[in-house]
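User: Here's a chain of 147 residues. Predict its fold as tokens.
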Amino acid sequence: MPEDPSHTHHRRPLRAAKAALVTNNHNSLSHAVNQWNSPNPINVKADTATTYADVDVSDYTSSSDSRAGWFDCSAGTDDIKLNTHWMDGYNESQKHAVVTHEFGHSLKLGHGPEIAVMDPCPACSNPNMNNNLQSWDINSYHNVRGY
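Assistant: Prediction complete.
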């Protein structure tokens, strides 16, 4: 399947990010934030009543959508959507992989090789990856972000 061009587009630099959370996958989101903060902290924190969210993370349910998660930056706040139809059947490691992968798209990263968190199928079994950022992910992050 060709990659959706919205996956690699972002409207503004993301040095500090606010995330509005309407998801049951809080542990996986915390894992993703910790992973992406490790190469060079971007200070991702929860949105508040007095701030504007850079990224909204929310759940939806669709058995006809084959994606466990997806990223959209077509209008307004960037959105990470997590499909509970698939996510609810995943183990914790798979959930971490999906959320970390989609959060990588919010940082302007495209898909990477099988060894990377940005693998096009992050929840697929991959014995070479432990759902932590790999060297490809970190190098791409620095190349795209410029720091």
